[in-house]
Specification:
With about 180 residues, this protein is mainly α. About 45% of the residues lie in helices and about 10% in strands. The longest helix has 18 residues, at about 100-120. The radius of gyration is 17 Å and the shape is globular.
Length: about 180
C-alpha cells in the first residue's frame, strides 16, 4: 500500500492515477514517525507477518519525477519481485536506520501542534510552530514540505526548490537506505 503524508485527499488523487494498490492518507504523520521517515518518497518492505524485511529506503514508485531526480523505479521493482517470488532480500536490508534525534522528535511535535492550531483556525499560531519545526528539522521533508500546502505555499513551487537545494547542499540527509 502507499501512504500519502498529506491533509487533503483531493490533492493526492491526481498522483494516484493508474495506481492499482490502496493509497492511504496520513495527515497525522503517524507512519513517518513510526518508521523514522524524514524524506519522501520512501519505501519500507513489510512482510505478511508485519516484520520489516527492508527498512525505509529512498525509492520511487513511478517515473513521474525521473527528469527531476534522475531516479527510475525499475531496479527497485525488480528487487521487490525477487523478494515476493523467491524471498530474496537485498544485502542493504540489514542497514540499520537511526531513530529520530531529539530535535527531529521536537520538530514532529511542533508540526502536530501547528496542524492542530491550523485546523482550529489559528493560522498565526500554526505559522509559529511550523517555523519552529523547520528550525529543529531543517532537512526533513515530512515536516518542511508537508507544511507548505498547509500554509498556502505551492509544494512544488519556489519554496520547494529552495528546500531541495538546501537539502542537496547538506549532503541529502536521509533516515534509511540512501539511493
Amino acid at each position: 500500500m502507499a501512504v500519502a503524508l498529506d491533509e487533503d485527499p483531493d490533492e493526492v488523487r491526481p498522483f494516484t492515477e493508474g495506481v492499482t494498490l490502496p493509497v492511504l492518507i496520513d495527515p497525522a504523520h503517524l507512519v513517518s514517525e513510526a518508521y523514522a521517515v524524514s524524506n519522501v518518497p520512501t519505501v519500507v518492505w513489510i512482510d505478511a507477518d508485519d516484520r520489516i524485511a527492508r527498512p525505509n529506503a529512498a525509492e520511487v514508485g513511478t517515473d513521474m519525477f525521473v527528469d527531476f531526480t534522475g531516479v527510475r523505479p525499475d531496479e527497485h521493482f525488480e528487487a521487490v519481485r525477487r523478494w515476493v517470488r523467491h524471498g530474496e532480500v537485498p544485502e542493504d536490508a540489514e542497514t540499520p536506520v537511526a531513530d529520530l534525534d531529539a530535535d527531529e522528535e521536537r520538530a514532529r511535535a511542533a508540526f502536530r501542534l501547528a496542524v492542530h492550531l491550523r485546523r482550529s483556525g489559528d493560522a498565526e499560531g500554526a505559522g509559529i510552530w511550523f517555523a519552529r519545526a523547520a528550525e529543529w528539522a531543517p532537512h526533513d521533508f515530512t515536516v518542511r514540505r508537508a507544511a507548505m500546502p498547509l500554509q498556502g505555499v505551492d509544494p512544488f513551487g519556489e519554496a520547494f526548490f529552495a528546500l531541495w537545494e538546501e537539502w542537496t547542499a547538506a549532503g541529502r540527509p536521509f533516515h534509511g537506505i540512501a539511493r
